[in-house]
Design a protein that fits this description.
Elements: H1 3-23, E1 33-36, H2 49-57, E2 62-63, E3 66-69, E4 75-77, H3 89-92, H4 110-113, E5 122-123, E6 126-127, H5 145-158, E7 164-165, E8 168-169, H6 172-177, H7 182-192, E9 203-206, H8 209-218, E10 225-230, H9 242-245, H10 248-254, E11 260-263, H11 265-268, H12 273-279, E12 283-284, H13 295-301, E13 305-308
Parallel strand pairs: 1-2, 1-13, 2-7, 3-8, 9-10, 10-11, 11-12
Antiparallel strand pairs: 3-4, 5-6
Length: 315
């Protein structure tokens, strides 16, 4: 064998070996999209502009806002349709609860909501994550969706980044019963800020399949990719059968109107959900990773992205 042929053979073997080695290390096989869940919510009160700016500095692929509508049709960045779990609404507007004892964002104008201070998440008056940002410190506000977008687009320019957005429309049926059009209001903003164009870095997510199907009817030419979130049937008052969605048939049905699924992490463990979804042409973006030690398992399962409260830990 000539010397040059030997060198070529050696290089070929080296290439082959590195391919085999990559195959045995799923971590390196593909890029997993990091989605900052409600901003850097592990470090600052969720969904505040401070949490969004911090998330941006960690260079995730996307930053997630949950979206709710106010009395005066403003789109705000808030997880719950109620205000008392994350703000001091009980102190500021003590008499504005409904008969069920809850303060609904849709009963307040944006001007009123801007008077509230946001704090760490509570449930029935108790802090959910004790080790996170102290509850009686700081002066945080509920942002509008426009403020959220302007902050991200501004930072994308000043930091020379292209971090995307991953909005979730919350409780569409509730909002529609209140006379609101959450999809129309959100889409108007997305169009105004250039997200309804091909190449824009965006996914739109919802737990309600009707909302996603409505999107396809109302905006048939939109390039925005849709994610069907999958909950557990026992949560809340859902009318949707999420158990069926997790079957091969259910996934095929989802692939008719969405580009991917956002399952709760436990659904993909000890199941074939990730590969079944891939077989139906769907992306898989599970939620919500709060401990880095579980990340390799998600990579091994072949997820395409992951929602996390700690986007810095996965980079
Ligand atoms: O949107 C993904 C994940 O955020 C869904 O759950 O309740 O945190 O909005 P949630
Ligand atoms: Ca969400």
């Amino acid at each position: 064998m000539s010397k040059s042929l030997k060198v070529l053979t050696f290089l070929y073997c080296l290439l082959l070996a590195s391919c085999v080695s990559l195959q045995t290390k799923p971590y390196f096989q593909k890029k997993v999209a990091i989605i900052a869940h409600r901003g850097a919510s592990g470090y600052l009160p969720e969904h505040t502009l401070e949490a969004i700016a911090m998330a941006h500095a960690f260079n995730p692929d996307f930053i997630e806002p949950d979206l709710v509508i106010t009395k005066d049709d403003q789109v705000i960045v808030l997880h719950d349709i109620h205000l008392e779990n994350n703000t001091n609404v009980e102190e500021v507007f003590p008499k504005r609860a409904r008969k069920d004892g809850r303060w609904y964002a849709v009963d307040f104008t944006l001007k009123e909501i801007k008077k509230l201070k946001v704090h760490e998440r509570t449930k029935k008056g108790r802090v959910v994550f004790d080790e996170r940002f102290p509850i009686n410190r700081g002066s945080f506000k509920v942002p509008t969706f426009k403020e959220f977008i302007e902050l991200i687009q501004g930072l994308n320019q000043s930091r020379q980044k292209s971090i995307g957005i991953y909005p979730e429309i919350k409780a569409p049926v509730f909002h529609q019963r209140e006379g609101k059009d959450p999809l129309g209001l959100v889409m108007k903003i997305l169009m105004d800020y250039g997200y309804n164009q091909s190449g824009a870095k965006i996914f739109l997510q919802c737990f309600d399949p009707k909302l996603l199907k409505e999107f396809k009817k109302r905006f048939p030419r939109s390039p925005i990719k849709l994610i069907q979130l999958i909950a557990d049937n026992s949560w809340g008052e859902s009318k949707h059968d999420y158990e069926v969605m997790r079957t091969k048939e259910g996934l095929k049905e989802i692939s008719l109107y969405a580009d991917g699924i956002g399952p709760w992490i436990p659904f993909i463990l000890n199941s074939s959900l990730v590969s079944d979804a891939h077989d139906s042409g769907l992306l898989v973006h599970p939620y919500t990773l709060r401990e880095k030690k579980y990340y390799p398992k998600l990579i091994e399962l072949g997820v395409d992205g992951v929602f996390t409260d700690f986007p810095d830990l996965l980079n």
